[in-house]
Write a structure and sequence with these properties.
- The complex is a heterodimer.
- By secondary structure, chain A is of the alpha+beta class.
- Chain A has 19 helices and 18 strands.
- In chain A, the strands form five sheets. Chain A has a five-stranded mixed β-sheet. A five-stranded antiparallel β-sheet of chain A has the order 8-9-14-10-11, covered by helices on one side. In chain A, strands 15-16-17-18 form a four-stranded antiparallel β-sheet, with helices on both faces.
- The longest helix of chain A is centred in the last third of the chain and has 19 residues, at 442-460.
- Chain A starts with a strand and ends with a helix.
- By secondary structure, chain B is an alpha+beta fold.
- Chain B has three domains: 4-118 and 166-259, Aldehyde Oxidoreductase, domain 3; 266-433 and 591-748, 2-Layer Sandwich (Aldehyde Oxidoreductase, domain 4), CATH 3.30.365.10; 440-580, Aldehyde oxidase/xanthine dehydrogenase, molybdopterin binding domain (Aldehyde Oxidoreductase, domain 4).
- Chain B contains 19 helices and 30 strands.
- In chain B, α9 (298-307) links the parallel β14 (280-292) and β15.
- The longest helix of chain B has 28 residues, at 506-533.
- Chain B is globular.
- Classes of the chains: A alpha+beta, B alpha+beta.
- The interface between A and B is large, with 85 and 83 residues.
Chain lengths: 471, 760
């Protein structure tokens, strides 16, 4: 009953009837016996299993890195998958050369993943900057080198390639030996691959978006179920409509982060979203998945709550749609106002207007690529120095991603003063019920949320709030 | 020199255990382990699980033909639990199936019942209830009890230090194949091939010569595979021999994290006494080591804690006691530094507290007490070739430390939200296994008739570059192109009775052995050359860059021709040589002696910045002057230094092992146990190797590099504390590592009252 998945693996066209929930990594290693891609954590937290995935967008092949250990193979249908074996040519390619020259590899287990991430960066960007190059490998963990030699390798590589400045068309990248020759044919080959086969139509559906959480939580159970990959549902888009911004639930974190619409209204969000997961995970994880996963600490959910978002659900059985406020979607710990046949299709919120402020704060044990101890977002609309609307949310402090209703309500009609901030903190503390766990004690989470609420005001109203009084 | 291993690494062509093509019919093994931390097994029913299609067998301790015993130093560790379990993750049975998926399904069908017993996870609690691995050990010099009277300031406190997960990226595992005559070949991801062989021999009840252990390379070890690669290797061998079919056993990540030991957490009480000039007069310390449920290497680890209890300082009166406490946690084990870091952390904590009390900068106390040439280490070894002050002074000069300290002060005066801190960290680390008998190695060198060379030693390559160093040492000895040399896998049939690749000694011991073996062959070749060229005195023959010289004059004889000639003249082109570190001994009755061949010194300066609102921090830089002797391969050594520094910082900052009271590991995945990523590593690491340092005990005058740099990480901890004190100079900081953002924030805002919600 499972249909064919067709894709290109390095230079070979593959057509397989394999279970679409199977992690791509297992296929690469166990079925194809390509052992350069390593298994380390099997939860997307280390990047050792990184592969490049290319797909046609507006006729061009666009590549991104994904962690293949939690990437359902069904999602590569019609795409080009590149493993380290697919980059090797007789001589070392410049990326490999740079790593060897700097001794940027010790035990070697993480190295292929680093080479993949580096290559993807080179293929995907028009100009190369060290900072971006580093960001592109930030999802790769190395236990041996301490990263200094890796940074040097990336720096040398970027300098070398920028010197030549031959551009980064597929042709010029091939000429510079960055990618092998066969990449030139991929565009044509992808067009020819019949990727129209749909994976829908099962009676019992488990909807899988990027799979970045489901394949961590229940990889084995998923293999026993019929899954429906929502990336096939044509629901990744971000558009403006009248006074709304509408986000398709299949939109990935990275697509959201780079959306010109989002950037227009939230110029700082691109930076703030670097704190969310890592590039490969952001390339896979979907906004809808984050919402439905209902983690009390989901970064995107917290952001969307502060934007006073609504969601639209559609039943895959009856086709009937309904809409509700995101804050009403959460009934209890991992309990949703949702039927099994319903799929979150869209999220929308009102376009920010007037004098508005937005901030997102997150603190985790490790600043990047970590799950928050506490996160919080705030949206404030001000008219004549008075708060007109305000929405504050917080994660890690309740069984659900928490919309801080009373605090938000309290702030309405207030002037932004030190007193307002302190009064808000008291209300915040009464609205939350954190528990102690591996991400921190309950007392810490209370303290931290207060600190991060202060941080919102310090960041947004530096002139009005005195730092001395708050620290 | 290009490191050929790296060329394979960057291409993804290096083979690790899980990448090997397995023989047809190979079965897969999965461990069934305890879910409770302490209890009696009341019932174990395997029938339902065994009846699952694809399950070949489920082995328990009853299937062991020999002894159910794998304890290395103390025989207190069963391979498979019999009637009692002592920690969560203790192996009970081995499920052998056609696929791992089948084995997983069978695991869920095993029916087990326990009678739970009290659980202890805290070392002090274990000590109070008399739960010890062995008797406490005390090292001392002078008389602390008398010395307190001569001190102007005495300070006492408690220190808590967390453990650390190795997080080698390649998990534990082995592949065992039965061989004819009742033997077995074990391909293991181990740092100690002989440890595997010896334990397997005992468990399987067959002589060691029937067990071949082979190691190609490890995807990281860090001490975690010194002793704890053994159980999985022995289990796979046990299954392979019983079923007469190859069996592969590789731990998945959750199993590896749950079942294997970590760096030992410690709790310690110290008392330090100084005179009014800041000289340390006396130091007394008691270490409570959290050993876990069985000894493993804990006693040796604890001993190194004692050896390094005074770090780089000379203290005339010292008494240090180590207590290895038995708890219901997986057996804690070797981890880069091997107890040394914990010992050094406590003396640094003592100096931090003393400096605060005296109102002087900590670095002034550190500087005043540095050890000098001909001082005596408190375990009796005379300090020779001491570079502590040289490294210290060189660091101050190279890195303008005084200026940096002023700049930090100025920054802190001008900033509210962020505060910076700075700390100095001198290190002194003894090189040699402290169990003197382990300081031996042998090498087997073959020169083939085409002039290429194969080298086997006991060293296991795990990313530390030991193969590259041995290659260079061999190539330099013969004076041939490095491309002629191949380092073979580590194999117990080629090199017997290996010491584990550990204690930073891999390159020293095995490099020296390889040099000796190469010299043996070289001497024979010189005689061949002399004869061939018609000279009498082989002593005047030299080989330089593959060309034979006589009396410094180039001859026409070259390497490849020379080898042919030697072969035709029936000259032995192979040599096995043996090296044992000279001059070391330690008397365990007096706890005095000369346990180390030499010491490695260094000084690092570390600066960090904390966000006083959020409690987060970053390490701005680590700059070190490190004593390396003469470097064999600069890039390898630099990489070891940089990597060690970041691992040390990780240990004391973000890497937090969280266990519940019932002995369950809560930080049991990479999403909950965070090791440094590229952004949490220091923004800048600068390492200078001390100039004009030489070492007679190291190959090519080098010094060991593996472990010492890790301890610079201790400075990162104290730089964060320094920044916290800049935020509020009056806060009293409890010394408890790691200093997570949680600890920073809750310490900075200790008195904050506004957090408790109104109960009304």
């Amino acid at each position: 009953m499972i249909e064919q998945i067709s894709f290109i693996l390095n230079k070979e066209v593959i057509s397989t009837g394999i279970n679409p929930a199977l992690p791509l990594l297992d296929f690469i290693r166990k079925e194809m016996h390509l052992y350069g891609t390593k298994e380390v954590c099997k939860e997307g937290d280390c990047g050792a299993c990184s592969v490049m995935v290319g797909e046609l967008k507006d006729g061009e092949v666009v590549y991104k890195t994904v962690t293949s250990c939690i990437y359902p193979i069904g999602n590569v249908n019609g795409k080009h998958v590149v493993t380290i074996e697919g980059l090797n040519s007789g001589d070392l390619i410049p990326q490999q050369e740079a790593f060897v020259e700097e001794g940027a590899s010790q035990c070697g287990f993480c190295t292929p993943g680093f080479i993949i991430s580096t290559t993807n960066y080179l293929v995907n960007n028009k100009t190369y900057r060290l900072e971006d190059g580093i960001n592109s490998i930030a999802g790769n963990i190395c236990r041996c080198t301490g990263y200094s030699s890796i940074s040097r390798a990336i720096e040398n590589l970027i300098n070398k390639l920028n010197e030549k400045s031959e551009g980064n068309s597929v042709k010029s990248l091939i000429a510079q030996n960055v990618i092998p020759k066969y990449f030139a044919n991929i565009q044509t080959q992808l067009r020819e691959i019949n990727s129209s086969g749909t994976l829908n139509g099962f009676d019992q559906k488990v909807f899988v978006g990027g799979g970045s959480d489901l394949l961590v939580q229940m990889p084995d159970r998923l293999l026993e179920k019929n899954i429906s990959l929502v990336s096939k549902e044509h629901i990744n888009f971000i558009e403006e409509e009248d006074d709304k911004i509408i986000v398709g639930a299949g939109t990935t974190f990275e697509e959201f982060k780079n959306s010109s619409i989002i950037k227009k209204y939230f110029p700082k969000i691109n930076n703030q979203l670097n704190l969310v997961a890592s590039l490969p995970i952001r390339n896979m994880a979907t906004i809808g998945g984050n919402i439905v996963n209902a983690s009390p600490i989901g970064d995107f959910t917290i952001i969307l709550l502060a934007l006073n978002s609504n969601i639209e659900l559609r039943s895959s059985v009856t086709g009937i749609s309904r809409e509700l406020s995101l804050s009403d979607f959460y009934l209890g710990y991992k309990k949703l106002n949702k039927q099994p046949d319903e799929l979150v299709e869209k999220i929308w919120f009102v376009k920010p207007g007037g004098e508005f402020y937005f901030n997102f704060e997150k603190v985790s044990k490790r600043t990047f690529l970590d799950i928050a101890s506490v996160n919080t977002a705030i949206y404030i609309n001000i008219e004549n120095e008075i708060v007109k609307y305000c929405f504050v949310s917080a994660g890690g402090v309740a069984p659900v991603p928490k919309y801080l209703e009373q605090s938000s309500e309290f702030l309405r009609g207030k002037k932004i003063t030190l007193e307002t901030v302190f009064d808000t903190l008291k209300i915040v503390q009464n609205e939350i019920s954190p528990i102690s766990d591996v991400r921190g004690s309950a007392e810490y989470k209370r303290l931290l949320l207060s600190q991060l609420i202060k941080a919102h005001f310090i960041e947004l109203f530096p002139g009005k709030i005195s730092l001395e009084a708050l620290i | 020199m290009k490191n050929e291993d790296l060329i394979k690494h960057v291409k993804g062509e290096s083979k690790f255990l899980d990448d090997l093509i397995i023989p047809g019919g190979t079965l897969h093994a999965l461990i069934f382990d305890s879910v409770i931390a302490h209890g009696k097994i009341k019932k174990l029913n395997l029938e339902k699980a065994k009846s699952l299609k694809g399950i070949v067998d489920i082995l328990t301790f009853r299937d062991i033909p020999g002894k159910n015993q794998i304890g290395n130093i103390i025989a207190d560790e069963s391979l498979l639990a019999e009637n009692e379990v002592h920690y969560v993750g203790e192996p009970i049975a081995i499920i052998v199936a056609d696929t791992l998926e089948t084995a997983k399904r069978a695991k869920a069908l095993i029916d087990i019942e326990f009678e739970e017993l009290p659980v202890i996870t805290d070392p002090r609690e274990a000590y109070k209830s008399g739960s010890l691995i062995t008797e406490p050990v005390t090292f001392s010099m002078g008389d602390v009890d008398d010395a307190w009277a001569n001190c102007d300031l005495i300070f006492e406190d408690q220190v808590d230090i967390g453990g650390q997960e190795h997080l080698y990226l390649e998990t534990q595992g082995a592949l065992s194949q039965p061989v004819e005559g009742g033997g077995v070949k074990i391909i293991s991801s181990t740092q100690g091939p002989t440890a595997v062989q010896r334990a397997a021999s005992k468990v399987l009840n067959i002589p060691m010569h029937k067990i071949e252990v082979d190691v190609l390379r490890l995807g990281g070890g860090f001490g975690g595979k010194e002793d704890q690669a053994t159980p999985w290797a022995v289990m796979s061998a046990l299954a392979a021999l019983k079923l007469n079919i190859p069996v592969k056993l590789i731990l998945n990540r959750p199993d590896d994290l749950r079942m294997t030991g970590k760096r030992h957490p410690y709790s310690a009480d110290f008392k330090i006494g100084l005179d009014s000039n800041g000289k340390i007069i006396a130091y007394e310390v008691v270490f409570y080591q959290n050993a876990g449920a069985v000894a493993d290497l804990s006693t040796a680890v604890l001993e190194r804690t004692l050896f390094h209890a005074t770090n780089s300082y000379f203290i005339p009166n010292v008494k240090a006691t180590g207590i290895s406490c038995k708890t219901n946690l997986p057996p804690n084990t070797a981890f880069r530094g091997f107890g040394g870091p914990q010992g050094m952390f406590v003396i640094e904590a003592a100096l931090y507290k003393a400096a605060r009390k005296l109102g002087v900068p900590k670095y002034e106390l550190q500087e005043k007490n540095l050890i000098h040439e001909n001082d005596v280490f408190y375990y009796g070894q005379l300090a020779k070739n001491v570079n502590s002050v040289k490294c210290w002074n060189s660091a101050f000069e190279k890195y303008s430390i005084h200026k940096n300290i002023e700049e930090v002060k100025k920054f802190n005066e001008e900033n509210i939200l962020y505060k910076k801190g700075i700390a100095l960290m001198p290190i002194c680390f003894g090189i040699s296994f402290t169990s003197s008998f382990l300081n031996q190695a042998s090498a087997l060198v073959h020169v083939y008739t085409d002039g290429s060379i194969g080298v086997s030693t006991a060293a296991v390559e795990m990313g530390q570059g030991v193969n590259q160093k041995i290659k260079i040492a061999t190539a330099e000895t013969f004076s041939v192109n490095i491309s002629r040399i191949k380092i073979e896998s580590t194999n117990t049939t080629r090199i017997a009775n290996t010491s584990p690749t550990a204690a930073s000694t891999g390159a020293d011991l095995n490099g020296n052995a390889a040099i000796l073996a190469s010299k043996n062959i070289l001497d024979r070749l010189k005689k061949v050359a002399a004869k061939e060229l018609g000279f009498n005195d082989a002593g005047l023959i030299q080989i330089k860059n593959e060309i034979v010289f006589y009396k410094s004059e180039k001859t026409k004889l070259k390497w490849e021709e020379l080898i042919w000639k030697a072969y035709f003249n029936r000259i032995n082109l192979s040599s096995h040589a043996y090296y044992a570190t000279p001059d070391i001994y330690f008397n365990r009755t007096k706890n005095q002696g000369h346990p180390f061949a030499y010491h490695v010194f260094g000084t690092a300066v570390i600066q960090s910045k904390i966000d006083c609102l959020r409690g987060t921090y970053e390490i701005e830089y680590v700059k070190a002057v490190h004593d390396l002797g003469k470097s064999i391969d600069y890039k390898v050594d630099l990489g070891q230094a940089e990597g060690g520094i970041v691992q040390g910082i990780g240990w004391l900052t973000v890497e937090e092992l969280v266990q519940s009271r019932d002995g369950n590991l809560k930080s049991n995945s990479l999403s909950t146990y965070k090791i440094p990523d590229i952004y949490s590593a220091p923004q800048k690491i600068e390492v200078h190797f001390l100039e004009n340092s030489e070492n007679d005990y190291g190959p090519l005058k080098s010094k060991a590099i593996g472990e010492p740099p890790l301890m610079y990480g201790i400075g990162a901890y104290f730089s964060i504390l320094d920044a916290m004190n800049a935020f509020n100079k009056n806060i009293d900081i409890k010394i408890s590592a790691p200093v997570t953002p949680e600890k920073v924030l809750t310490t900075l805002y200790k008195s904050s009252k506004q957090l408790i919600p109104n109960e009304s």
